[in-house]
Design a protein that fits this description.
By secondary structure, this protein is of the alpha+beta class. The chain folds into two domains: about 5-120, no CATH class; about 145-275, Trna Endonuclease, Chain: A, domain 1, CATH 3.40.1350. It contains eleven helices and six strands. It has helices spanning about 5-10, 15-30, 35-45, 55-65, 70-85, 100, 105-115, 125-165, 175-180, 220-230, 250-255, and strands at about 190-195, 195-210, 215-220, 230-240, 245-250, 270-275. The strands form two sheets. A four-stranded mixed β-sheet has the order 1-2-4-5, with helices on both faces. The protein starts with 6 loop residues before the first helix and ends with a strand.
Length: about 280
């Protein structure tokens, strides 16, 4: 049984080179289990102690197959397997570009990318293609995490509204149009007491982990907000807090920070910082 191995141990030269050593002996000893293979290598290879063979065994599971590859292609294959299957938190920064991303790496991780030939000043077309492919996966991971956070914030607002409606004696439950229609212009439909019955309230929910906290308003959201007036509000959840902290803004509050179209300029979204 291979224990869970931290990403720091996997993403190191000692792990990658250890895998190469295990793969060499696996060809010669194909019937050995992974643990028996490690024990065998430790007996027959004098430099075995310099490798993290337990981490190498975990890496072999991620890679999933053995191919005769040159040094750089071997490293590139291993890196791709780790990034796509373990999705280390720092991988999301790859969408920011190679130089900015690598500044955030540990010395061990930088050495791995360098050994893979991925840090040369004038990369080949194949290296550029590799970076583009992996960066695309990083953008997917980042988008998935952002969506998870957004849905969590929407559920927090629904929970708050269920509590509020009960407090004021409304038996209806809030609806969640944001789950079904990304172009509705709001995420939660809730209610309030009017002069002659219930009135609708529209809530656009945002989440942020930025410092200082900020959120994005799209043109479509703003058009719906302007049309709805006082029936519309923004719920901004600061997800850095535990529990998350809610900030509520009216249309009038947000309008102070909305840009205007000028000449041939036409705004599509606006970033607004919380005061």
């Amino acid at each position: 049984m291979i224990e869970f191995i931290s990403i720091e141990r996997i993403f190191s030269l000692s792990c990658f080179e250890g895998l190469r050593l295990l793969q060499k002996h696996k060809i010669q000893q194909p019937t050995l289990s992974i643990q028996d293979l490690i024990s065998y290598v430790e007996k027959v290879e004098i430099d075995a102690p310099s490798f993290d063979l337990e981490a190498s065994a975990h890496l072999s599971i991620l890679v999933g197959h053995y191919q005769e590859l040159d040094d750089q292609l071997f490293y590139q294959t291993c890196i791709s397997a780790v990034l796509q299957q373990r999705e280390p938190s720092w991988a999301k920064a790859m969408k920011s570009g190679r130089e900015r991303f690598t500044k955030e790496l540990s010395s061990d991780a930088k050495a791995v990318f360098s050994a893979a030939g991925l840090m040369v000043n004038r990369p080949s077309r194949e290296i550029v293609s590799w970076w583009d492919s992996i960066s695309g996966h990083a953008r997917y991971v980042f988008g998935r995490e952002s969506m998870r956070q957004a849905r969590e914030a929407e559920l927090l607002t629904i929970k708050e509204e269920i509590k509020r409606l009960k407090t004021i004696g409304i038996n209806e439950e809030p609806k969640w149009p944001g789950l079904d229609d990304n172009f509705a212009g709001y995420d939660v439909l809730t209610y309030d007491l009017g002069d002659v019955g219930l009135v609708n309230r529209l809530i656009e929910v945002k989440s942020t982990i930025a410092s200082p906290p900020r959120f994005i308003v799209s043109r479509n959201e703003w058009q719906v907000a302007k049309q709805s007036g006082s029936a519309y509000s923004f719920h901004i959840w600061d997800m850095r807090k535990s529990p998350p902290r809610l900030h509520v803004y009216s249309v009038a509050d947000v309008e102070l920070h909305i840009p205007v179209d000028q000449g041939n300029g036409w705004w599509k979204s606006a970033e607004i910082r919380l005061s």
